[in-house]
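Can't paste images in this forum, so I'm doing it all in text. The chain is below; anyone willing to post the predicted structure tokens underneath?
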Amino acid sequence: MKVIQNKDGLFNVDDNGSIYLSLAETSEEALIKYQEALDFQESPEFVEEARLENIATQYQRDRQYPSIGDQLDALFHAGAFPADMAAQIQAVKDANPKPVA
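Text version of the structure:
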């Protein structure tokens, strides 16, 4: 959780972007600013910005992993599949051999 401090008070923002009023700030003015921050958090602009940030983060995370096909192939070669699934995969591999380069 990070803390945002501005001239109007302290706000805590968690990893999901949710805004919380700091317990140290309980004045009427701080409560009004807190409500304004919550209203902004629900605004279409904020929601769209958060959605795009989430897409970009997910894209970067996904690019770090090997493809699903490579992951499944590694599991197959490691013998991690039940015998019936391994037999089905092997049948497909036998029927469709890799081209020789």
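The two ends are 53 Å apart (CA to CA). The mean pLDDT is 76.
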